[in-house]
């Protein structure tokens, strides 16, 4: 049975406790849209509070350290996140790869730690505008994923999702085209089958991320092999975020 569309909000470095009312509103709306799986990744400081308020949505983190515990000032381990209520962690986001110099190998060890702590991983990938213009986007993204994804995963269908997020589409208002998304997701699907076998690889959800909003969601989520969306800016209010979830549910109705 195909999985439900997975609509995930990435709040990035946004939100104080005043945002808890948006989380509550998202949670209430998610209870009315059960055909869609809705999740939010707030900053660490709100993780536990959102978890405590949420009856329906899953709460996740935006990063984790690969180690279990120890002398790592400022870092948070996967075990700590799970303890605070996180059910998933977003890893390999381009803002971490570029802003914090995270290599594929580091991202992979973080993913292994997150899986060991019992969390799902949303593994991000995506090319820069320069790479796309040079015609090498697909090869780049597949290499990045191959090197970032753990090989031994017990139940990949339940524990892994991919987010294809072209760097040039993030926060720019310039989403990728349906054709480009369909082509890239098709190539990622082939890789997932290769890595995790036909039975599970065929159903692992591949999200699209990059300037998704309530207006373009229907079109983008309707592209081939799109199993949901990872949303930044438009996830910061319940109205726009749930507008996207609504669009995802309507596609499923067709
Ligand atoms: P955006 O961000 O929706 O603001 O483009 C997406 C992301 O970075 O996950």
Query: What is the domain tally?
Result: 1
Spatial ordering of strands, largest sheet: 1-2-3-4-5-6-7-8
Bound molecules: 2-phosphoglycolic acid
The biggest beta sheet is recorded as: 8 strands, parallel, barrel
Give the CATH topology.
TIM Barrel
CA radius of gyration: 17 Å
Give the name of the CATH architecture.
Alpha-Beta Barrel
Secondary structure category:
alpha/beta
Strand percentage: 5-15%
Q: What separation lies between the terminal Cα atoms?
A: 16 Å
- How much helix is in the residues? 40-55%
Number of strands: 8
| Number of DSSP helical runs | 12
Shape designation: globular
- Uncertain stretches of 5 or more adjacent residues: none
Order of helices and strands: EHEHEHEHHEHHHEHHEHEH
Short summary:
Helix content is 44%, strand content 15%. With 254 residues, the chain is an alpha/beta fold.
Question: Please, could you describe this protein's structure?
Answer:
The model has no long low-confidence stretch (mean pLDDT 96). The protein is an alpha/beta fold. The chain is built from 12 helices and 8 strands. It has helices at residues 20-32, 44-53, 78-83, 94-99, 104-116, 129-133, 137-148, 156-159, 178-196, 198-201, 217-221, 238-253; strands spanning 6-10, 37-41, 58-61, 88-91, 120-125, 160-164, 206-209, 228-231. Helix 1 (20-32) packs across helix 2 (44-53) and helix 7 packs parallel to helix 9 (178-196). Strand 7, helix 11 (217-221) and strand 8 form a beta-alpha-beta unit. The chain has a single domain, classed as Aldolase class I (TIM Barrel, Alpha-Beta Barrel), CATH 3.20.20. The chain has an 8-stranded parallel β-barrel with strand order 1-2-3-4-5-6-7-8, surrounded by 6 helices. The radius of gyration is 17 Å and the shape is globular. 2-phosphoglycolic acid (PGA) binds at residues 10, 165, 170-171, 209-212, 230-234.
